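re: that chain from earlier
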Amino acid sequence: MKTSTLPALRVKPELREAAERALRPNETLSKLMESSLENFIAQRAAEDEFIARGLRAAESAQKSNRYVSAEAVLAQLDQRIAAAKRT
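^ sequence. v structure.
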């Protein structure tokens, strides 16, 4: 598969200097930018899926007229936290 390039990115000198300071040994600025972009894309996809699941859940609750109270959700989360602390 052929690779392609992204548009040049103009930044303030301070940002470039900060990015260069953040480099790990043997890491290039290009590799840092590539991995940052990959991580951002994965995060954005996860956020989009989270929102889609929430919208589907809201639609399902509206259709069935079955809702769970905030108190019940928080109580269940407290139980999970307590169980996790015990292990």
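The chain has one domain: 13-86.
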